Every structure is written in structure tokens, then in C-alpha cells.
Amino acid sequence: MTSQADAPMPRSNTRRNLLIFAPLAVAGAAGVGFYAMLQGIRDGSFNPRGIPSALIGRPAPQFSLPPLESSGLPALSSADLAVAGGPVVVNFWASWCLPCLVEHPHLMALHQRGVPVFGINYRDGADDAQRFLTRHGNPFNRLGVDANARASIDWGVYGVPETYILDREGIVRWRWAGPITPELMRSDVDPLLAQLGA
Questions:
Q1: Residue in 92, 65, 67, 69 with CA at minimum distance from that of residue 78
Q2: Which whole-number Å values give the CA distances from 154 to 54, 102, 148, in the listed order?
Q3: What's the N-to-C CA distance of the chain in angstroms?
Q4: Angle, nearest 10°, between helix axes 98-112 and 126-136?
Q5: Could you tell me where the DSSP H helices lie in 64-189?
Q6: pLDDT means per 10 residues in the chain (198 residues)?
Q7: Structural domain spans, the chain
Q8: The CATH number fitting domain 64-196, selected from 3.40.605.10, 3.30.70.660, 3.40.50.2000, 3.40.30.10
Q9: Which of 123, 160, 151 is nearest to 62 (CA)?
């Protein structure tokens, strides 16, 4: 005769016990990931921008954005990206973004060299965006306003600034999350634009 303590546990109790331990397993996995990130920071192998874009080698997502009316620039849609006659730069930016101010002179330099630079203003106020461009210069050939961030989500944007380079067919060839710096211009941007025929 078996005692009640020796009887098998009902299935519903087993499931309940598993659900109790599930948050602990998730927390443990997160802890392991955080520890790996700290180790990468310590030994220099961690790259916060190392998350690859799923768009590399693919056409840009379909989108159509209204213009920043006060800028006088035309609106921006995906159809505009493949008709520029050469490689184009697509830059997601906002007036409240300090790193956007850091990279702005490099966008101005690209524009002055004749490279088409298309801007997507991310979750910004129209007056603030216009003040930024008036104060620092306007590097954009076209400028779309992504007030609700729908286009940004389709592009896989993590935050601003974020920059993409597309070839003359509108295929995404390069992505950078973060500000463009002089080093990045020399190591990545200029060589790729030259290779693509800019």
C-alpha cells in the first residue's frame, strides 16, 4: 500500500511548479548575457553597433513620408531612393539628438560633394527640426517626417542617428547606428561611395 506522499504529483501541480521557475530561468539567461557583454567590454570585443541589419543586400522598405513643410524640400518616399542616378545616403535624425549634431558636418560635406543625402526626421517637432536646419545647415535633398516612427520601425532603426547607404538600384549596402565620425568617413563611407560610383 502506497502512502499519499508516495503518489505521483498531479499534472496541474507539475505545470504550476514549472511556471514558478520560468522567471528564474529568464533572469538567469539575462544575467549570463549581461556577464558576456561586460566581458566583451573588458577585453574590447564588445561592439554595441554589432547587431547586423536584415536590410543589407535587400531593397529599402516601402514608405511614403510627408515633407517638413517649412524646409521647402520635397517629401520622401522609397520610390525616390532608386532614381537618384547613383548611391544615396539615408539619414535618420532628430533635433533633440546630440549625436546628430556631432555627425551633421559630415552630412553637409557629403551634400557639398554632390552625394544625395535623404533625411528622415524621427519623432520630432516641426519647429524644432526647422530651427536645427536653420542653425546648422540643411544637407538634405529630400526630407520626410516620420512623426509616428512607422517607417523607422520598418527600417529596423534602433535610435537616432542611424545612416544607410544604398546603391543606384536602391539596394541597402551599408548601415551605421550612431554618429558618423571623421574616422568612419575615412574607413567606411568614402571607400563605399567610391566603389558604388559616387
A1: 65
A2: 11, 25, 12
A3: 86
A4: 50
A5: 98-112, 126-136, 150-155, 182-184
A6: 54 60 53 47 44 83 96 95 85 97 97 97 97 97 96 94 95 95 96 91
A7: 10-43, 64-196
A8: 3.40.30.10
A9: 151
